[in-house]
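User: I'm writing a tutorial on reading structure tokens. Could you give me a worked example: one chain, its sequence, then its tokens, then a sentence or two explaining what the tokens reveal?
Assistant: Sure. Here is the example chain.
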Amino acid sequence: MDDKPCHRKMTGHLTFPLMAATLLSSFGSSMLYGYNLAVVNSPATHIQAFYNATWSKRYGHGLTQGTLTLMYSLTVSVFALGGLVGSFPVGMLVTRYGRNGTLIRSSFLVFLAGVLMGFSRYMESPEMVIIGRFITGIHSGICLSVVPMYLGEIAPKNLRGFLGLVPSIFICLGVFSAQVLGLPELLGKDPYWPLFLSVVVIPAFLQLLLLHWFPESPRYLLIEKDNVRGATEALRWFLGTYDVEDVIEEMREEQSSLASVKTVSVWHLLTDCSVRWQVLSVAVINIGMQLSGIDAIWFYTNIIFENAGIPDPEIPYTTVGTGAIEVVAGLIGCFTIEKLGRRPLVITGFFFMGICCSGITMSLVLQASVSWMRYVSVACVIGIIAGFCMGPAGVPFLMTAELFKQSHRPAAYIVGGSLNWLSNFTVGFVFPFLQMSAGAFCYLVFCGICILVALYVYLIIPETKNKTFMEISHIFASRHSFFSCLPDSVKMVKFNGYGALENSSLEFSGSGSSPA
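And here are its predicted structure tokens:
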């Protein structure tokens, strides 16, 4: 008798409001992250020439090569530093303004950054470029956590993987857009780079204009605000059906399990033994995502291709080709995640990236004696990008939403986001100097990290496909109980169709129960 309702609340179909909310939030937020990752790549020489000319006009002499490299590295990596700063207030913002409300308010940061970068040349101020990049980083730091949180909470669980990877496609589209607009025939010439940097205001304006017509997350309304009416109306709007009682009941179950637990702080999350595996898993996949070398590829694609021996006139078009492959790989991941699951995409992606990183090292070492090795280098760059976009690009953010209950989710996004951005900053700032000191062998560092992350996911993280947030929490609680209580009692029982340890519970670590 209980099987029928359980089945109904486990499934749902893709409606126009669901798809529209997903596309709009991804277009106005995730796409800007991808765009800002790649936008500094093609105008690098123009920006450095602007820095040098401005410095010479101010102080009567130009910059040394080391100082110029340092200033440009700061321009690239300050975006990640802003992202790190933006990730800290995510928990407070989503609790106070909601998921949708936070996305809308964060759009104003993009307008401020666009004005600073757009008028930097007119004002002869390199500082305006750097501050503008920092502010766009703050916006991305907020949105990179809030978008997957919002989509994970509005999506039926059988569509959570599909909708959760849509932002990663828009990240790839953002990178591709920056590569196309950076061509010499468009905005890649010297007079246009300030406009090139400030184009981000257009997607932000459209999101600000349209997103406020969409409802807030139903889970946020019911579980955190106890607004049953608002949650019911939002569910009916998103799911396209009047009968949402099963979904409301599932949310009430989670709400009742959290009745004595308020939204936890980061410190509480880090010291809570019952979620140690989830926290460690989020840390590993977020750090691994950035230290995989993908940011080095995106930030410095043209330099990598130049070192590989690609003729200068061909580099912009080779870069655009890699961007197109990113989009295709992202689409493949998006349309296969609900069939293959999260684990296969992440494991395969990281492992393939590791192989390609070692391939870049081999090709760069041998290209002096083997002329066709430069094409191997290009193929390996494409392989890294394709492997990343198929899984590691979006699944870590999706997993952060899936591995935690409502009370722990905001703090988990702060931890995952801050580690993600700190790693991003490290790669963007250190890579030029690492490349100068280690040469071709610098990619072996990324290779080792990719292989280790793939092994961790294979050994530790369970599959979360087609499971509710309660069921996923129960799996980890069972694991915690297993390690804590062996060999007292290990008896499997049914839990909504999934095996779980009988003596485990969502709040097991705090029960302190002992066998009778």
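What the tokens reveal: The CA atoms of residues 219 and 408 lie 13 Å apart. The chain has 23 helices and two strands.
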